[in-house]
Design a protein that fits this description.
The complex is a heterodimer of chains A (about 375) and B (about 575). Chain A has about 375 residues and is mainly alpha-helical. Chain A contains 15 helices and 4 strands. By secondary structure, chain B is α+β, with helices and mostly antiparallel strands. The longest helix of chain B has about 50 residues. The termini of chain B are far apart. The chains are: A mainly alpha (about 375), B alpha+beta (about 575).
Chain lengths: ~375, ~575
């Protein structure tokens, strides 16, 4: 039963991916504005953003849904990737900034006349990409090593990652870090020689994001079916037993933590040129928690769930922040409470959950029919306990 | 135009003061009037004598005099000194107040006389007389009834660099009773003597300053120490004094930092104590703990407004119900209390903020948390949702901006202990934190409820088997923890800003405090909060920026947990999870 649904899932995902990666950009490029088939440039940018969010959500799910590690630091890695890309894009502005200097505007503003040394290599795209993998990977490696070595787990891990993100956020708000302070980076002009504001460039970025998301999905799909994936889930369900079986859980967790950090960072890399801005508010713990909401709403412990969650919640956010700007947070908060308390399986798990409820009702009905006079003994014990 | 305006405001100030002091001693008035109209050598003598009067009227009139705002009215040969009132009529004329009796000038028909400033001749002053008036004003300021005002006057004279002020100060020294002011006078005299031509006087002044550890004179003494033309023995003495004073400043800064650290630690302690109960004892990660703090702070704000002019809000929802806009609102009339009754609002706000936050905690526990006792990670997520909702509700009810909570007068101000500034509010916070810790500890260890709480927290199932109504105990414990957060909010409203995201700035710190202290340990929380608070302040001083200090503290905490993963006071247990 299970493998069959899984293979079906892959085919559905591939079909949707094909449509998203090729269909939507084609509908944007080759149809005229008035046509009902037309997809506007705005939609392409917005959906491109969602694709990056979906990648971030998968990275959260890899940790939380599959390994039981609720990291509140994924936004940090996402933003770090974004900053690496942002540094490259800032260098590409060249002297087209407001001050017409060969260095980024905010550095001119801070009184610099030459480029600080660590900014220099970011003119190279491969270097920036290398850093986008290395920096979050190293940070995750160091933090993870320290955390997992001293067996920090469960909520303590969450609290510590929250503190890490908070500290990094405070750090990036400082001007003296020379990364733009609280304004961050914006006003990008060129990426790999293309104008970032051109619809064609945005379309290409959208396609790249789509392919990246698909690749991440397929990779994680493969990873979770290997022995590694099984150990991963075993750690989630009972870490001690895995430890007693002779597996070093710390190493497994460290690997998955680094991997998730890199995936989040890549999502950030693709996110920045599409939205055109990166600043420290992207690395707050709230952003991490928002990503957790996507996963929870979509359904954790599955790989389609996070993608569905990221798209649904963000589409709702886009709509609600325009229609009911004051009520959006209340709405989001309530949804999150309800999902966590009453819908642990999220949207993906909803059919199974409903089926379970239905079956329970049938069972109870039959029981009542069998012994109508005595009532349900199980229920009396339960009510007694509550009272 | 502008000088006229300035003049008018000045007169406004003067006359409002005059109105208050209309019942001043008639003798003083008469003396003052005589001094103004006096001529020749008699006038300086009379003005000098006014210094003993201690009257504010004298000061105001003398100030007006130096600014040419005292006029003479020639009433059939006798000259009457007058001030003009602030309210001018259409012609720019104002009523004149007779300085001698404080009444308005009347003409023969008992009608009030009105003048424009140009109609009258102002009383002349020359340089000598202005000098004497200044001395008289200084003497008056030194004789002020309020010791703080006296101290300020002394300070001003001490910094004046005018040797002629020394006799004025010395005259006051004999009469001064307040030890702080006496000390300030000695300091000021020594500071003035630094400019003396005689090296011996200079040296004794330097020694005096070193004895007094005078922080205010440091710059002057430094200037002497670096002065190449000064006699060498004076320079040597000055260098000695500089090092003495610098050492004193170091000590003052150190103790000031420790004190601020203690008070920050106390706030952290009160904030974290609630968390130590909900998180440490119950295992619930309450991300809405910060919003419980905000409830306490906003309760204080509402109570303050009810004692004042009342509190009202109304929120319109963007929905319609059969054409009627939907919304909610509340209006509480104010008591318009004044004086000590208004100042006592904080005493009512304290228990109320506890109760409100505890009620909110109760509701939260019943609606959300009781489903999540066995799923701590989920409790984190659900309570984050609660925190979002509550923040937005605060924004809708109280507005997105910070609200103004004024401290009661008995929490304002400060006292100095050996130059270390101790704010009353901070001292109060420290004292109250101690009380709350003792109260919590008593509740947990000495009462039947505490026994039940500990039993349920240690083993929920076992306690349930023994007949403890665990659901109720959970509810009470959570409400108590939330109530403590509310109390913390009442404190924070006295020290920092009160806004919708108030709780967010404390939540990370307080979680860290509980983790560092050791989850489940009240004593650990106490040590951790004082430790984190103090090191935060010290690092702020060392690194010179609050943010860098905070980052260093967070990194240190992460490293500390490597060394002691269970926190300072971890509970030893053989069970693995």
């Amino acid at each position: 039963m299970l493998p069959k649904t899984k293979s079906r899932e892959i085919w559905v995902v591939l079909a949707v991916a094909l449509f998203v990666i090729f269909g939507l950009p084609a509908m944007n490029a080759f149809t005229s504005e008035g046509s009902w088939l037309h997809v506007s440039n705005f939609t392409i940018t917005v959906y491109g953003k969602y694709l990056c969010y979906a990648m971030l959500a998968i990275s959260v799910d890899l940790l939380w849904g599959y390994t039981g590690l609720l990291s509140l630091g994924q936004a940090l890695f996402f933003a770090l990737g974004g900053y690496m890309m942002g540094m490259y894009l800032m260098r590409m502005i060249g002297d087209l900034g407001q001050y017409h200097q060969p260095i980024p505007d905010f550095l001119v503003f801070l009184g610099w006349s030459t480029l600080p040394a660590f900014w220099k290599p970011f003119a190279s795209f491969p270097f920036a990409m290398l850093m986008a993998v290395l920096l979050p990977g190293t940070l995750a490696g160091m933090f993870g090593y320290l955390a997992f070595r001293s067996r920090i787990r469960g909520v303590y891990f969450s609290i510590l990652t929250q503190a890490l993100t908070y500290a990094a956020c405070l750090l990036f708000f400082r001007n003296s870090l020379l990364l733009g302070g609280n304004n961050g980076f914006t006003d990008f002009k060129f990426i790999l020689g293309h104008d970032t504001r051109e619809p064609a460039t945005q379309r290409d970025l959208f396609i790249v994001s789509g392919i990246a998301l698909l690749a991440v999905y397929l990779f994680c799909k493969w990873l979770t079916t290997t022995k590694f994936g099984k150990v991963q889930r075993a750690i989630r369900d009972s870490e001690n037993r895995v430890m007693f079986s002779g597996d070093s859980t710390a190493n497994f967790k460290l690997f998955i933590f680094i991997l998730a950090a890199i995936i989040a960072s890549l999502a950030g890399v693709l996110y920045v040129p599409q939205v055109g801005i990166i600043n420290p508010s992207e690395m707050s713990t709230d952003k991490s928690l928002e990503a957790v909401v996507w996963v929870a709403v979509g359904g954790r412990g599955t790989l389609v769930g996070p993608i569905i969650g990221a798209f649904t919640v963000n589409a709702m956010k886009s709509w609600a922040t325009r229609a009911y700007p004051d009520l959006w947070l209340i709405f989001l908060g309530t949804m999150f409470i309800l999902v966590t308390v009453f819908m642990p399986g999220g949207i993906i798990g909803l059919p199974a959950q409903l089926r379970g409820v239905w079956q329970k009702r049938i069972v109870r009905k039959r029981k009542l029919e069998a012994e109508p006079q005595d009532g349900d003994p199980g229920e009396t014990i339960e009510t007694a306990k509550i009272k | 135009m502008r000088p006229l305006k300035f003049f008018l405001t000045l007169v406004v100030m003067l006359c409002s003061l005059l109105a208050v002091y209309a019942e001043e001693d008639a003798a003083v008035r008469e003396k003052l009037a005589r001094a103004i109209v006096a001529e020749g050598p008699e006038q300086p003598k009379l003005v000098g004598e006014l210094g003993d009067s201690g009257s504010k009227l004298v000061r105001d009139v003398l100030v007006a005099w130096t600014r040419d705002n005292v006029f003479l009215y020639d009433a059939a040969g006798t000259k009457i000194p007058v001030l003009l009132e602030d309210q001018t009529d259409a012609d720019g004329k104002a009523r004149a107040i007779n300085i001698a009796d404080g009444k308005f000038l009347l003409d023969d028909k008992q009608a009030e006389l009105r003048f424009a400033p140009n109609d009258l001749t102002s009383v002349d002053t020359d340089a000598t007389l202005r000098g004497i008036i200044q001395v008289t004003l200084d003497t008056l300021a030194l004789a002020d009834a309020n010791p703080d005002a006296r101290q300020n006057a002394v300070l001003k004279l001490g910094n004046s660099k005018k040797l002629k002020n020394i006799p004025v100060l010395q005259a006051r020294l004999g009469k001064e009773t307040d030890p702080a002011v006496t000390r300030a006078i000695n300091e000021a005299i020594a500071m003035l003597q630094l400019d003396d031509a005689d090296p011996k006087v200079q040296i004794s002044a330097l020694q005096q300053l070193a004895r007094l550890k005078s922080i205010g004179s440091l710059d002057m003494v430094k200037a002497i120490a670096e002065n190449k033309t000064a006699p060498p023995q004076v320079v040597a003495e000055a260098k000695k004094t500089v090092s003495t004073i610098s050492a004193h400043i170091g000590a003052v800064n150190f103790f000031g930092t420790i004190f601020r650290g203690m008070s920050l630690g106390s706030i952290l302690l009160v904030v974290a104590l609630g968390l130590a109960i909900t998180f440490g004892l119950m295992g619930i990660i309450n991300m809405a703990h910060g919003e419980m703090i905000a409830i306490g702070a906003y309760t204080t704000y509402v109570v303050q407004n009810i004692f004042g002019s009342g509190f009202a809000f109304s929120v319109n929802l963007p929905f319609h119900f059969f054409g009627h806009p939907v919304g909610f609102g509340l209006s509480v009339p104010g008591m318009n209390a004044t004086g000590w009754f208004y100042e006592s609002y904080f005493l009512f706000a304290l228990p109320l903020s506890f109760i409100m936050a505890a009620l909110a905690g109760l509701v939260l526990e019943r609606l959300v948390i009781r489903f999540l006792y066995r799923r701590p990670l989920e409790s984190l997520l659900a309570t984050w949702g609660v925190s979002l909702v509550m923040q937005q509700l605060f924004r809708m009810v109280f507005g997105a901006n910070n609200v103004q909570v004024s401290s009661p007068r008995w929490l304002q101000g400060h006292f100095t202990l050996n130059d270390v500034l101790l704010g009353y509010n901070r001292v109060f916070v420290i004292g109250f934190a101690v009380l709350i810790v003792i109260g919590t500890w008593m509740l947990l260890t000495k009462t039947p409820l505490g026994l039940l709480i500990r039993a349920v927290m240690q083993n929920r199932d076992m306690a349930s088997c023994m007949g403890v109504r665990t659901a109720r105990v959970n509810m009470m414990t959570f409400a108590f923890g939330s109530g403590l957060a509310g109390l913390a909010g009442a404190f924070i409203s006295q020290i920092g800003n009160v806004g919708p995201s108030l709780g967010q700035s404390y939540i990370v710190d307080s979680f860290m405090t509980v983790v560092v202290g050791g989850v489940g340990s009240i004593v650990g929380t106490v040590y951790a909060s004082v430790g984190i608070g103090t090191s935060d302040q010290v690092l702020q001083q060392v690194t010179g920026s609050p943010v860098t200090g905070k980052i260093v503290v967070l990194v240190c905490i992460i490293l500390f947990l490597q060394w002691k993963p269970g926190g300072l006071f971890s509970i030893r247990s053989r069970s693995l999870d």
